[in-house]
Amino acid sequence: MKLLDEFKAFALKGNVVDMAVGIIIGGAFGKIVSSLVSDIIMPPIGMLVGGMNFSNLHIVLQKAHMNEATGKMVEAVTLNYGNFIQTTIDFLIIAFSIFIAIKFMNKLRTKKEETPAPTAPPAPSKEEVLLTEIRDILKDKH
C-alpha cells in the first residue's frame, strides 16, 4: 500500500503532469510542423531545384547481383546521402519554425509584462511646496 501511495504522490506532482502535457502537445505540434515541411515548404523548394527529390539521391557501393552459391538475388548496397540531406533540411525548417513560434510567444509575453500599472502622480518637490505656500500667503493678504 505504501508503494502505491508513493507512486500516486509522484505521478500527481505538478512537474510530472506539466511534463506529460508538454510531451503530448509537443507530439501534436511535431505533426503539424512535419506536415508544414513536407506538404507546404518542400514542394516549392523541390520545384526550385528542378523537381529533384533529395531522398532518391544515393551512391551504389555494390550493384544487385545473383549469389551463385545460393541462387538468390542479393540487393544492392547503397549510400543514401540524399535521405540525409532531406532529413537535415527538414530539421532546419522545423527548428526555425519552433524558433519563430517561441520568439512570437515571448514577444506577446513581453508586451503583456510591459504594460505599466497606473501610478500616482509624483510628490511635489520642496520648491513647489514652498512656492505654493508663498502663493497662499499672498492670496490671504489681498
From TrEMBL:
One cellular component term from this protein's GO annotations in UniProt: plasma membrane
Taxonomy, superkingdom: Bacteria
Annotated transmembrane regions: 12-33, 81-102
Pfam families the UniProt entry points to: MscL
Molecular function terms, GO-annotated: mechanosensitive monoatomic ion channel activity
Predominant subcellular localization, coarse grouping: membrane
Keyword Repeat: no
UniProt keyword terms in alphabetical order: Cell inner membrane, Cell membrane, Ion channel, Ion transport, Membrane, Transmembrane, Transmembrane helix, Transport
Topology within the bilayer: Multi-pass membrane protein
Record InterPro entries: Mechanosensitive_channel_CS, MS_channel, MSC/AndL, MscL_channel
Transport as UniProt keyword: yes
Localization in the cell: Cell membrane
UniProt record similarity statement: Belongs to the MscL family.
Functional description taken from the UniProt entry: Channel that opens in response to stretch forces in the membrane lipid bilayer. May participate in the regulation of osmotic pressure changes within the cell.
Subunit (UniProt): Homopentamer.
Name listed for the protein in its UniProt record: Large-conductance mechanosensitive channel
UniProt lineage: Bacteria, Pseudomonadati, Bacteroidota, Bacteroidia, Bacteroidales
